[in-house]
Amino acid sequence: MGESVQAEVMMSFLVSEELSFRIPVELSYETRDPYAVRLTFHLPGDAPVTWAFGRELLVDGVGRPCGDGDVRIAPVEPEPLAEVLIRLQVGSDQALFRSSAAPLVAFLDRTDKLVPLGQEGALADFDSHLDEALDRILAEEQSAG
Length: 145
Hints:
Blueprint: E1 4-14, E2 20-30, E3 36-41, E4 49-54, H1 55-63, E5 71-75, E6 83-90, E7 93-100, H2 101-114, H3 126-144
Antiparallel strand pairs: 1-2, 1-7, 2-3, 3-4, 5-6, 6-7
Helix pairs in contact: 1-2
């Protein structure tokens, strides 16, 4: 079994320009799936929703706009490391979250201490768990959609 890093961050769920509310978001990273991070959003009245995407996307998104498709991450201001917007999209539906960059950077620093960025493929057991990780990601995507 692999090692993991977890954290909880409070984010603002931006429903509209006039309406937003704070929700807890669990961040997780596991060595058995070293390229991905998972964010589990706890929206009031709904079952938790988990999104998995590349750790490098989150690393890059804290400092500059990045991402194509379903996940886009960008600093709120031109000055990096203040606040970050995370846009998640499925079809025409989208959700927008705003977070302080500091707890995201602290979480990413802990993941980097566990598995340095760029060294993910060096994990001895990664290849043996690749199919399992891909099956799990596909199952999560199907259950979310």
